[in-house]
Specification:
With about 250 residues, this protein is α/β, with parallel strands linked by helices. It has a single domain, classed as Phosphopantoate/pantothenate synthetase (Rossmann fold). The chain is built from 10 helices and 7 strands. Strands 2-1-5-6-7 form a 5-stranded parallel beta sheet, with helices on both faces. A two-stranded antiparallel sheet has the order 3-4. The mean pLDDT is about 90.
Length: about 250
């Protein structure tokens, strides 16, 4: 990676960019994923590049949803694997969730490489190479999934997901958890729980919350009772607008 001095005011953001560029060069990240990351950075600027109280509330509701699930699955794409593979594997272990590689721009080569990245981080039984089911209403290869994984899951965590698949999962009656920096996206507005935060901040926070709730049913119940997706998204947008006003 390009050497970036820690004194640089954009250090953390530039490190993430370098990880994605390396992921692109290694065949994990699609070129479109670089564009998607840049779009997300803009929303993170409006958040103040920090985890907000709204994101923390959503994370606790997401953790409660995961610990109550019977068949949780985490959907993994190239950007997620490039940015925080180890943290995702830790989350899967804590939540007893399966990992499934699910790609918008799918190729067997990319699936194999992402599986390898996850396995090198400690994952076992990663799904996605031989899809045997299709999400209803999602055309072409974007709808391909594993019957043992996403198709039969009761809860799907979908960081950095696209709106078509998020909407399809919702129509199938599954509970879905999104991590999306854009509070206006179809994904954000289709998910059961939406965490508006940068994914490398959101996943470690989610690991901590899942671990805290594993033996605390009351905490899980409380987290869900205090969370309303639409109210949370409205509060996030109000925060972004206020931050923008201050910058002006």
């Amino acid at each position: 990676m390009t050497e970036i001095p820690r004194s640089h005011p954009r250090y953390a953001s530039l490190v993430l960019r370098e990880r994605l560029v390396e992921g692109f060069r290694s065949g994990i990240v699609a070129p479109q994923g670089l564009i998607a990351h840049g779009r997300g950075e803009m929303f993170d600027y409006l958040l103040g590049e920090r985890t907000t109280k709204e994101a923390r509330a959503a994370s606790r509701a997401a953790a409660a949803t995961l610990v109550r699930a019977k068949r949780p699955v985490i959907s993994v794409n190239g950007n997620l694997a490039a940015l925080c593979a180890q943290e995702v594997v830790l989350l899967a272990g804590a939540a007893k969730a399966r990992l499934e590689v699910s790609l918008f721009h799918r190729s067997d080569d990319r699936v194999t490489k992402i599986q390898s990245v996850l396995e090198s981080s400690g994952a076992e039984g990663v799904l996605g190479f031989l899809p045997d089911a299709v999400l209803p209403g999602v055309e072409h290869t974007r709808g391909m999934c594993s019957k043992e994984g996403i198709y039969s899951a009761d809860v799907v965590l979908m960081p950095l997901e696209d709106g078509d698949r998020a909407a399809s999962l919702a129509r199938m009656g599954k509970k879905t958890i999104a991590v999306d920096l854009n509070p206006l996206s179809r994904t954000s507005r289709s998910a059961t729980v939406t965490i508006v935060d940068e994914v490398t901040r959101a996943i470690p926070e989610l690991v901590k919350n899942v671990e805290d709730m594993l033996d605390d049913k009351r905490a899980a119940t409380l987290a869900l009772s205090r969370y309303d997706r639409d109210e949370n998204l409205e509060a996030v947008m109000a925060r972004m607008a206020a931050n923008l006003g201050e910058l002006r």
